[in-house]
Every structure is written in C-alpha cells, then in structure tokens.
Amino acid sequence: MLKKVSRRTAAVAASITLVISGTVTAQAVTDGQHDGGDGPLARGLTALDRGTAWSLTGKLKLTFPTFHTEGLAFAGDRMFLSSVEIIEPTRKYPTPQGGYDRTPGKGIGHLFVMDRQGHLQKDITLGEGDNYHPGGIESDGRNIWVDVAQYRPDSSAIIYRVDATTLQVHRQFDVRDHIGGIVADRTTGHLVGNSWGSRRFYEWTQEGRQIQTWKNPGNFIDYQDCQYVPARKMLCGGIAGLPQTPAAGGGTSPGYELGGLALIDLRDHSTINEVPFQYWSSAGHVMTRNPLKMAADDAKLTLWAAPDNGEETNGTELFTYQATPAT
C-alpha cells in the first residue's frame, strides 16, 4: 500500500490510478505539477542506485493486436500506447544512398487509447508516407505529444499533438531528423526531442521553432521513452544491445539487453543520475526496452513498462514495479 500523497502534491498535480485485475496497484503523481522545486519523483530518482530493489506489483495483459510497442502515457482515466505495425521491413544498403543507410520500409503508426483496465477505446493512426514510426510519447495532462518518424536515422519526423479528452489530432510541425522520443517542459512550454539512438537532443517551441540542439553527453544506453520530471528535469528509459562472448552464448543468441534509467537536467543537460534496470519480461526483454513511465508519492517510486511486442510469448503486458530508494 502506498503512503498518502502529500496535500501540497495533490493540490498541484493530477493523480493516476492504475487498476489491474480489479485492484488498485498504484496511485501516484505524474502530470501537471508546477515547478516550485523538486518533487518526490525527482528526489526518488536521484536516490536510486544499483542496489535498489524493485518489486513486481501488477501485470495487465492487453488483448488487442499491439504490434511493436514504443511509448506509454497517462492522462485522466485513459492510457495511451504508441506502436508501429511493420508491413515491409527496412533493408540496409550495401553503401549509403541519398544520405540514408537503409530503405524506408513500410508501416502504420498507431496510438492506442485505452481505459485503465486496458480495454481498447480507439486506435488512432498517425503518420504520412515514409513517416510511420511513432516513438516515445508524453502527456502534459491535456495533450499527448507523439513523434512519428521514418524508421531510419538522419531522416525526418512529424510531431503531433492529440487532445487527451476529445482525441482530436493536430499536426504541429515537421523535423528534419529522426525523432524517437519527446518531452513537454512544463516550465518553458517547450518540447524536447531525441534523435535516433538519442545521440542528439532538440528543443523547440510548440509551433516548431528550434531553440537549441545538443549532443547527448551520455553513452550508457539509447533512450526510448522519456517524461518530464519537476523541476526542469526529464527521465529517460532505454536499452543497449551488447554482444556476448562465445561462453555466454554469443554467436547463437542475439546478445544481451542492458536496460537503464537516466535523470537529466533540462537546464544544463547534465546527467544527474544513471542506473541499470535489469528486470525481465515474459518474452525475455529488459523492462526498459521501450514504453515506460514512472510516478512517485512521498515514499515509493512506481514504474510501468510494456516491453513485449504483440506477437511475442504472452503478447504485450503492462508491468507495474515499485521501489523505495534509500535516502
């Protein structure tokens, strides 16, 4: 049972109640908090270390076709899950052609809208032409921000804003790069996006005017799904695929998935804390592989993740983990 959220936090933030199998497994703050200083999420993430123990507290199986899941967000009584349906896989060129290292492939971008029990309410298709790959998504409490890019580096993306209540889709602006994740900075009102492999970051106004860009100073993992953390920070979860030695199965297995979390300062772009996250899904994927969001009350951190594709072992399951970092 989570401790009661502080009165101050409850007054300035929207609360999430995630219902799994008929029981409340988490009630915590995520969206809408104003920046009056670091809240419980920032403090909890700063206190994380390699020894932090996480407990699995819930698992919700999604019963509709989910394809290759990408990003997760919560708003009001709804959950949002982005996904890409691959129709024709990309193929690497022997040598780059036209500035690209692979063919564009073909696919369909999905934004699944669900209730808190995981029942599908609507399947919103997003993208145009070669831009069919949604990435990590973000809720600012009123809108869901979705990036839909080409499925290849150094390409292009479209940034969409979806009204979390009416589900009306607004095409905001285009970007001349692959954007794989997006964060809404509640203090500035700006958007922050990351490129293929999260090697570059961009900051824009909501109308698409670029404010700045910078290289990712970290090389631990490639960020897949990120979120805003008061005050002026962002959390990113991700993965690095590492080769294995022959003794560890290298050559016969695809390699090792190193998962992790990073807390990043949006003011100076420094990494505040970075920790591995080595918990595994039913299909054997690390939890931080793709869709991920976190929340906190005054004592506990809650993490939601949906790393498995729809066609894998048990299909896509939404896992809930909790931890109490030592402070």
Give the overall average pLDDT: 89
| Helix/strand order | HEEHEEEEEEEEEEEEEEEEEEEEEE
Uncertain runs are 1-34
Strand content: over 45%
Supply the CATH class.
Answer: Mainly Beta
Helix content: under 10%
CATH topology: Neuraminidase
Provide the CATH architecture.
Answer: 6 Propeller
Could you describe the largest sheet, including whether it forms a barrel? 4 strands, antiparallel
Number of domains: 1
Can you tell me about this structure?
The protein has a single domain (7-323), classed as 6 Propeller (Neuraminidase). The protein contains 2 helices and 24 strands. The chain has helices at residues 7-12, 40-47, and strands at 15-20, 23-29, 55-61, 68-75, 78-88, 92-97, 100-102, 106-115, 120-126, 133-139, 143-149, 157-163, 169-175, 181-184, 191-194, 200-204, 210-215, 222-229, 233-242, 256-265, 271-276, 292-296, 301-305, 317-323. The strands form 7 sheets. Strands 3-24-23-22 form a 4-stranded antiparallel β-sheet, covered by helices on one side. Strands 4-5-8-9 form a 4-stranded antiparallel β-sheet, with no helix packed on it. The chain is globular. The model is unreliable at 1-34 (pLDDT under 50).
